[in-house]
Amino acid sequence: DIIGTAVSLDDLPLREDLRGRSPYGAPQLQVPVALNTNENPFPPPAALVDDVATATREAAASLHRYPDRDHVALRTALAEYLTRATGVPLATENLWAANGSNEVLQQLLQAFGGPGRLALGFEPSYSMHPILAAGTRTDWLPAPRRDDFSLDAAAAVDVVRERRPDLLFVTTPNNPTGQSIDLDELATIADAAPGIVVVDEAYVEFSSGPSACELLETHGHKLVVSRTMSKAFAFAGGRLGYLAAAPAVVDALMLVRLPYHLSALTQAAALAALRHADETLALVDTLSKERDRIAAGLDSMGYRVVPSTANFLLYGGFPRRFADAHAAWQAYLDEGVLIRDVGIPGHLRVTVGTPEENDRFLEVSAALR
Ligand code: PMP
Questions:
Q1: Check: complex ipTM more than 0.90
Q2: Ligand 1 test: best mutation among 102, 226, 240, most atoms within 8 Å of CB?
Q3: φ/ψ (deg, to 5) at 301
Q4: Ranges for the Aminotransferase class I/classII large domain (predicted)?
Q5: Residue 101 Cβ < 6 Å to ligand 1
Q6: What are residue 315's DSSP bridge partners?
Q7: What are the φ/ψ torsions at residue 116 (nearest 5 degrees)?
Q8: What DSSP string runs through 133-189?
């Protein structure tokens, strides 16, 4: 018997606003083809694995000491990478990292949200944004996207002017729908925003468009660009997210971060992984082409595919949407293919896998049509 099972969640003196809520949870199932959490399907190259092992071995010799609280070497390496990737000259002081971009976003809400404050996002979007708002007791206002899931910039400006959120979330490419927003539209929305504008660019490497980092020179007093090594960098298990912003934003996050939040092992491993950025990112192109191949395949079968600039696709069943998306999700799973029911009626989301995994997904899609 497990100690303590007589007590249930309802018996605990839990915060009232957390009662009845569900934790974030994509099912973690052992299946032949897992295409459900937008990971990179390609394991890290052997040279990267070796380098991470060597670097963490060296770091292990100093584990009796706390790590660099401000992770300066890592921020410097991230600034160099981001400067190279975007052409925007970013300094160490512009960068900040944490355990996944989820923690970066949580720190932003801790610093700029909180009781009596409002965060706004355009749904459907990343489901963690409202969950992180709830955890920090920030009010959450969902604003709509168009019926085709694209973002209507004029409508966005209107709702932002009217509701004046302390934090505005714009996810581009958007998860789970895949579309990106143009930088000039983003700038217009940011101009209307009275508070902090968080641009969540978790998937930006898979799009051919520019990064919102380009707006930092003009909008750095309010704009924050959040990024992650979980997707394009094939480093989801390493837990490393980061942001680019004005140095003052970094000063704000230092007020809420836990001391030594990034372990010495994480910092060493992430630095090693960054040294192999060119090799890892070389596969992004393959994945983008695979995405387009899956989209064309689904389209030719009569599925309705939402155009995507990310490493996943949202699509509806034959002829336009699934009558019962959850039943369709289960039918894929019965064939050993795990995709995602993101709760959008009539639609499912599939992550781009290896070419073999994608072939299998398309095969099952053809059979289920
Ligand atoms: N933002 C978006 C839009 C995401 O889809 C995800 C991962 N699903 C994240 C942030 C967080 O990823 P991580 O914490 O691994 O960086």
A1: yes
A2: 102
A3: -85, -5
A4: 33-363
A5: yes
A6: 305, 348
A7: 85, 0
A8: HHHTT-EEEEEE--TTS---HHHHHHHHHHH--SEEEEESSPTTT-----HHHHHHH
